[in-house]
Amino acid sequence: MNQIIAHIDMDCFFAAVEEKYNPKLKAVPLIIGSPPGKRGVVATANYVARKFGIHSAMSSQKAFELCPNATFLKGNKSLYKEESIKVMQILKQFASEFEQVSIDEAYLNITEFAKNKDLNEAARLIKKEVLKQTKLTCSIGISNSRYVSKIASDINKPVGTTIVTDNYKFLKDLDVNKIPGIGKKANEKLKQLNIKKIEDLAKADKFKLLDSFGKHIIKYQNIAKGIDKTGIKETKYKNKSISKETTFLEDIPTNECEYHIEPIANNIYNQLKDLGYKTVSIKVKYHDFQTITRDYSLKTTTKNKNEIISRAKELLKEIPKEKKVRLFGIKLSNLIKDYQNQTELSSFIM
Ligand code: TTP
Ligand code: MG
């Protein structure tokens, strides 16, 4: 595989977080969502409750009728978000590129991490670390295609690992609406063309498809054939950086720049807002205006403030110390939009 993409999705996430803090709930049917009798819906249910046919987006009243003994909890959005942040921080460590797509799922480019490893072993190590640090389980799909990995992570839930080496063989017998992006409407329209399985879409006449759907369908036909070069969509902020420089009233010895690292790091950290960074740089301008920069690129994107401080300190060690300094600055670049601040939990039905 030229690129290895893992899709990771937490198992019955909101319910699993509740069980973590109250293990007694593990043994009973647990439903997170509106209480029955109201017009609300189920956000999720643990796997015990799912045996009764209960699922996300079902009306709470219907869920109650299916399982009157179930425990209903309204849910604790801020707790789920906190747990999600912990999970994502762990997952990021395995990825050269990382894209969180919802509160409990993310795509990871694990090409580097999986080098010289059996893919099952790579998946096992990721799941083990998440479980060790958060007491939560997840399911993983691995392939060379973003779409295939997403479908694969759902195949053996919970605690599942599905590794796909032949995309088309894996996809062909699945219903066409398993492809993320093919919603109800498209599915209905495809049915009218007698396209039900992914294989049918792969083999369908391209011009008939274009007639009915327009050019966007070709991307989906390629996915159906197992061809997908989408990769990880880190939202990069090319050419953008965040920096802060301080010009001193009097020139200072190079060593003393260290005392300015923390206040400058605080300043740029506050500017980061919903961005993460991969590269930390420092700039030193000597009294004679000679300027030196040094930078360090992390393997993964982070928002960590201490990382800015410690990297800047390390970089400062590399700067020649003979001359006095008139200006010192820190810059963060390779900025990437951080999911946590983009998607509010309120976008979920609760
Ligand atoms: P999902 O990953 O779709 O579901 P899940 O983690 O509960 O279960 P699975 O093991 O099948 O992955 O969604 C993640 C969380 O998002 C889920 O725990 C609750 C919330 N959610 C809603 O609030 N409403 C919804 O309709 C869905 C689908 C999810
Ligand atoms: Mg999930």
Sheet-strand content, in percent, reads 25-35%
Give the N-to-C terminal Cα separation: 40 Å
Q: Tell me, rounded to a whole number, the average pLDDT.
A: 92
The total count of strands amounts to 14
Please estimate the helix content.
25-40%
Low-confidence stretches: 341-350
Which small compounds were modeled alongside the protein? thymidine-5'-triphosphate, magnesium ion
DSSP summary: helix tally = 13
- CA-based gyration radius: 25 Å
| Major β-sheet profile | 6 strands, antiparallel
- Which H/E pattern describes the elements? EHEEHHEHEEHEHEHHHHHEEHEEHEE
Give the class from helix and strand content and strand pairing.
Answer: alpha+beta
What overall form do the CA principal axes indicate? globular
